[in-house]
Amino acid sequence: MTSEPARRASTVDAFAAVRRLSSAMLNAGDHGTVYRELSNELFAVLGVEQVHIARLSQDYVIGRGNCYRPGPDGVPEIGPEYQQQLSETSAVRNVAQTGEPVNEPDVPNSPVLDQKLAERFGAASALFVPLGLDQQVRAVIGCISETPRDFADTEVELACTLANQAAAAIGVLDIRARMGARAEHQTALARAARSLNARLDLQAVLETLCREAHLALGAELAGVYLGDSEHGGLAVAAHGLPKDSDWFGYVIKPGQGVGGQVLVSGKPVVSNSYRSDVQVPRLAALEDIETAVAVPVRWDGELKGALSVAFRAMRRVTDEDIASLQALADLAGVACTNAQAFEHAQTAARTDSLTGLLNHGAVHGHVREEIARARRSGEPLCCLLADLDNFKPINDQHGHLAGDRILREVAAQLDEEFRAYDGIGRFGGDEFVVVLPGLTEEEADLAGQRFQAAVAAALPMAGSGAPLTASVGIARWHEPLTAPELIDRADRALLVAKRSGKDRAVLSSNDTEDELARLESSTEAPTRVLAELWDMISQCDRPTEVLLRLPDFIRDALGLTDAVLVGAEEYPLSHELCRRLDGAAIARPNLLALRKALGAWDLPVDGSEGSWAAVPLARDEHVHGVLVLQSPTRTFPLPTLRLAELLAGQAVTALVGQMGGASRSAVGALAAAIDARDNYTHSHSEEVVELAEAVAISLDLDPGEVGRVRDGAMLHDVGKVAIPNEILFKAEPLDPEEWAIMREHPLIGERILRRTPELAPIAPMVRHEHERWDGGGYPDGLAGDEIPIGSRIIFACDAYNAMITERPYREPMSSEEAIAELEHNAGTQFDPDVVEALVVLLADRLPAARSA
Fold first, then answer.
1. pLDDT tier at 463 (50, 70, 90 boundaries)?
2. Which of 263, 344, 716, 834 has the fewest Cβ atoms within 10 angstroms?
3. Cα(571)–Cα(637) distance, rounded to whole angstroms?
4. Rounded to whole angstroms, how far apart are CA atoms 272 and 311?
């Protein structure tokens, strides 16, 4: 029976051993130090001659052990590594599977111990305890006595306690390693993304993948097999092997090695006992591999191969290691897709199969290249975008084969007409692009005429009898336009050419943008948003208030994150910004890119998320500032940008009407804005203009006067800019006070036009367009020939169009009823000669109405 002093001494020794090991573990820098210090304490407290530490593979297939013996100066002697198969009966296997200690006092007669190892190490008695971490047995500690003995329960408990302390130290080391590995993996992925994306050759991509995988996991070698589950894989790329290695060109069979297993399963495979638990390829390069991991490589939605990484020592492969390796393989898959398709893409991306010209994608690339060249050289650059007029009827009448022949002939004519280095492309359908480096706007205009001549030269090939012409839009590049923005400006000029009669060549400019704004406001503008804008404008007491309220209005109406007015007074560079924008908006994916594009690093706005745009607020050299918009989307939506431009343009147009100093185009924009604002008379002005011009011609007015009548008809309602919405849109007849306000609009219109020298001659015509023949009109009560002839014509034409137009407070008249009303009031309300000419004109256009 053990005495009390002996038990106390034993307890003191145990506590001392735990303290010593705990202190040693704090300074342990690697697993080897942990195992040595653990062995020393087990020697001290258990008095054993040997300590065996068997490190287990992740799959518990194999154990790799070393024998530690007491050495001089407290440094254990470590014997050579030996291997133990865990599929065989052994104490190590029992501890690994159960996590419980095995105490065997009689080793030679034990049925659970590996007798070969017992004989090899002269074991008489043994105690095996687990070294566990994360609910897994990572190693088994064997305490070997060369003389028979029975380990007491307290000794078993002490050995387990010391093993647990060692496990905690290993856990700390593993955490540090994982944290470092995580940072290394992230760095490796970032580096790999750059390297892989820079490769457009399949072999280069695969070699880069091997190098990055080798670096990311700190492996001895890495390689890629290309193949499948049926045919196996071909070794095509590697890192860590000499170029003359027998590995290159080797074909692994399905299921052979970890790479072959991946080709069969399509899933990651890990082996810590590479030479024993997989069918290893018979290659010198793989003879000393202990740990290997492989992941699938996919592209185009298919398994294409396997990426294998190998180590010459047993290494625990973590989930993070596998995830990083798979991420590298996935990045490479994307790069392989690009590389494999590169040769085909080089041709397909640049050639239109029908015409042999550049196709849509190649045009964008070519424009980008030319912009970069123009930026370096300072040479001018223009882009021409053209559309074949009347092509659809030809296609419909004679079929697509005939249409295709025309397109091919046009392409051939263009190829002969333009320079070899001009980028000529088919932009889509019957649209063509010509990129014109070195040409000024004037020279590009002449090039547009040459384009139209080339199209005309293709007409004999059409064989259709239909006129084949071309509408052309031309844009000049300047900073900070991108390729899409340059093409878009040419496209907007083309739109003006198409909508204003076709067979025209139009240069993109501020005036073009104004004209397009008029066209869009009268035909395409969202009525509700436009009406809300004018409602906001009508509530402003001063012109400047329109600008102050505009940002919040546009932000809310278009669902933007923010809208900021960078006013000209607060930001003097607004004039330079508007000059750079040249009348049209630009958008960029972030604020930094927008500031760079504008050359305005101190732009007084702030924010980080979403995309950004700049919209100029300028008209005829008068700059009101720049509207900076922020969208929550990654790319600023083009329809939103176009609508923002329209709304901003309408707001500036209102200022023009209220402040004066505008050009003819600006006042025209104001007239179109008023017509669009009065949405129930959507095309009212255009119809009045057409009738008034025809009546003026029939009355034998000279051409100059006919032109002035046409302009007066277009601008006759321009003064309505100052009429409040509640009066302009009232659903019932106006009361006397409201009529008094409404009758001010001819005077306002006159004032607006007199401020513009070019339009001043038609100002009296607009002032008097509501005077009656009998003198009962307004504002001056003129009668008979005192009223300008243009005013009399516009008055009658306007009245006829108003009578046949539906109003909120009445149904429209029929044409017959309106004509009868004109005839009834001839000589009192209307000039009889004007009514006679108008009725004759309408009789020709409406024979059914007159015959009735």
1. very low
2. 344
3. 27
4. 9
Strands (DSSP E) contained in 95-231 are 102-104, 125-133, 136-145, 221-228
Question: pTM for the whole thing?
Answer: 0.46
> Residue 50 has what pLDDT?
93
Q: State whether 440 and 573 are in the same domain.
A: no
What is the token pair recorded at 447?
């090039």
Q: Which helix (H) or strand (E) holds 118?
A: helix 115-121
Contact 566, 591 (CB under 8 A): no
CA angle 580, 581, 585 (to 5 degrees): 160
Side chain identity at 552, as an amino acid letter? D
CATH code for position 116? 3.30.450.40
> Quick check: 438 and 379 in contact, CB under 8 A?
yes
Residue 284 sits at the vertex; the CA angle it makes with 282 and 286, to the nearest 5 degrees, is 75
Measured CA to CA, the distance from residue 587 to residue 559 in angstroms comes to 16
Q: Residue 615 CB: number of other CB atoms within 10 A?
A: 25
Burial class (CB in 10 A: 0-12, 13-18, 19+), 801: buried
Task: Please report whether residue 230 resides in a domain.
Answer: yes
Radius of gyration (C-alpha) of the chain in whole angstroms: 44
Write down the residue that tokens 């062995």 correspond to: 39
Tokens of 30: 């690697």
What confidence score (pLDDT) does residue 208 get? 86
- Per the listing, tokens 């970890």 go with 258
The encoded tokens of residue 415 equal 């190829």
- What is d(CA 408, CA 406) in angstroms, rounded to the nearest whole number? 5
Look at strands 381-389 and 302-311 and give their pairing. Answer: unpaired
Closest by CA position to 285, among listed 255, 241, 224, 244 = 241
Domain count, the chain: 5
The structure tokens 């004018």 sit at 534
Residue 606 in domain: yes
Q: How far apart (Å, rounded) are the C-alpha atoms in residues 837 and 814?
A: 19
The pair of structure tokens assigned to 527 is 């009525």
Q: What is the domain extent for residue 724?
A: 678-851
Start-to-end CA distance of the chain, whole Å, equals 138
Number of neighbouring beta carbons within 10 Å of residue 261: 21
What the block records as the tokens of 365 is: 């690339």
Indicate whether 219 pLDDT > 60. yes
Helix H or strand E segment including 332: helix 319-348
Distance, in Å, from the CA atom of 122 to the CA atom of 107, rounded to the nearest integer, reads 9
Indicate whether 730 pLDDT > 70. Answer: yes
Q: How would DSSP label each residue in 597-636?
A: HHT-TT-S----SSEEEEEEEEETTEEEEEEEEEESSSS-
State whether 332 and 354 are in the same domain.
no
CA 285 to chain centre: 46
- Measured at the alpha carbon of residue 385, what is the angle toward residues 369 and 421, in degrees to the nearest 5? 40
Q: Do 212 and 188 meet the contact criterion of CB atoms below 8 Å apart?
A: yes
Query: Are 364 and 412 found together in one domain?
Result: yes
Output the CA angle 492-712-504, nearest 5 degrees.
30
Averaged pLDDT for residues 649-657: 72
The answer, yes or no, to whether the previous bond of 724 is cis (omega within 30 of 0) is no
Q: What is the pLDDT of residues 600-624, one digit of tens each?
A: 888 888 877 889 999 988 776 678 8
Question: How does strand 291-299 pair with strand 269-271?
Answer: antiparallel
Going by DSSP bridges, is the β-strand pair 431-437/423-428 parallel, antiparallel, or unpaired? antiparallel
The verdict on residue 534 lying in a domain is yes
The answer to whether residues 471 and 361 belong to one domain is yes
- DSSP letters, 826-849, are BTTTB-HHHHHHHHHHHHHH-HHH
Instruction: Locate 77 and state its tokens.
Output: 């002697």
How is residue 366 written in tokens?
Answer: 């070519």
- Say if 115 falls within a structural domain: yes
Q: Tell me how far apart the alpha carbons of residues 817 and 804 are, in angstroms, rounded to a whole number.
A: 9
